[in-house]
Automatic annotation (TrEMBL):
The keyword rRNA-binding does not apply. This is Pancreatic triacylglycerol lipase-like isoform X2. GO terms for biological process: lipid catabolic process. Belongs to the AB hydrolase superfamily. Lipase family. Keywords: Secreted. It comes from Sipha flava. SUPFAM superfamilies: alpha/beta-Hydrolases. Residues 2-147 form the Lipase domain. GO terms for molecular function: lipase activity.
Length: 171
């Protein structure tokens, strides 16, 4: 049953799964049950030729019955992907907990010889990896990632206890 299929992809792999879901639907007229995108980012820049040929396609909520996304290293210059539900642990920004320059320096062999740009890149990679680390943790700890509704316009977490809540990750 296609509705029982759950595909999980990290970064650009999430977009590959979107293409798989769309092509599966074209062939069968049935949607895959779920696609989980772990920190899906789009390749940039997109040239006019690539846009014309539709070579860079992003994961979208039409690609499966349910598309959920976990953003842990949001970079504003990347195109935004939309799912049915999107989670932004710790605001979805870099650095995620444990990914600060100081933590990275403590794990380097020779932090004095690494420039700030290298440390920023490592901070981004570390934060990016948090998406699948959080997802893995959600498999063994079902109540680890309780979420609240967030209003992006006001940048506030909604505090009304009657609003819907959800758990991030595998459930």
């Amino acid at each position: 049953m296609p509705s029982n299929i759950h595909m999980i992809g990290h970064n650009l792999g999430a977009h590959v799964l979107g293409v798989c879901g769309a092509n599966f639907y074209k062939l069968t007229k049935k949607k895959i049950g779920r696609i989980t995108g772990l920190n899906p980012k789009g390749p940039m820049p997109i040239s006019p030729w690539e846009r014309l040929m539709n070579l860079r396609r992003l994961l979208k909520k039409d690609d499966a019955e349910f598309v959920d996304l976990i953003h842990t290293a949001k970079v504003d210059k990347f195109p935004r992907t939309t799912g049915h539900v999107e989670f932004y642990p710790n605001g979805g920004k870099t650095p995620q907990p444990g990914c600060t320059k100081e933590n990275i320096e403590n794990n380097m062999n020779d932090p004095e010889n690494e420039d700030d740009e290298t440390k920023q890149i490592l901070e981004l990679f570390c934060s990016d990896a948090r998406s699948y680390e959080y997802y893995n943790e959600s498999i063994t700890n079902k109540s680890a990632f309780f979420s609240k509704l967030y209003d992006p316009k006001t940048k506030q977490t909604m505090k009304n206890e009657n609003l819907p809540t959800n758990h991030m990750g595998h459930n």
